Description:
Keywords: Oxidoreductase. The chain is mainly α. The protein has helices spanning 31-34, 39-55, 59-69, 83-90, 99-109, 117-129, 143-146, and strands spanning 4-5, 75-76, 133-134, 137-138. A hairpin with a 2-residue loop joins strand 3 (133-134) and strand 4 (137-138). Helix 2 (39-55) packs across helix 3 (59-69) and helix 2 (39-55) runs antiparallel to helix 5. The chain starts with a strand and ends in a 6-residue tail after the last helix.
Amino acid sequence: MGVMAWSPLKNGFLSGKYSSATTGSVDTGRAHLVGEPSQSDYVVIDALNDVAREIGATSAATALAWVQSRTQITSTLLGARRIDQFEVNLAALDVTFTDAQRTTLDQVSAPSLNFPAENNRTLARMLQFAGATVDGNPSIVSPLLQVSPTRY
Length: 152
C-alpha cells in the first residue's frame, strides 16, 4: 500500500511566505479560503524556516523534502500553479537533513492526540511487557503490578 501526502505545504503556510516575525498580511489569493496560520502553525512554520536557512534551501523545498523522506510516504502531491513554484518544488530532491534537523521537524509537527493517546504512550509498554525487553526496547514494571504479588 502506498501513502500520498496531501497538501504537504499546508495550503501555502510552509511555502516560506509566513513567519511569526512577519507583520501584516501575506499577499496570497488563498487566504480568504484557508485563513491565516494559527499560533500552533507558527511553531512549525518558524522551525521549518530555521532549518531551511541552515541548509540553504527554500522553506517549500525543505518541507517537501521532509515529507518525502518519511519512510511511509510513497508519493507527494505537488500543488504548483506556476513554473517558478514547480522549480522550487523540484529543488526538494536535492535537500538532505542531519539527524538533528529531522528530529526538530518531527517534533514540531507531531500531531496532538487526545485521550487516551498520552496514557498509551507512557503506560502501554510497562503494562504490556512488565520489564521485558522487546525488539531491543526495554520496559519497566508498572508500579501497579509491584504493589502485590496478587494481581488485582
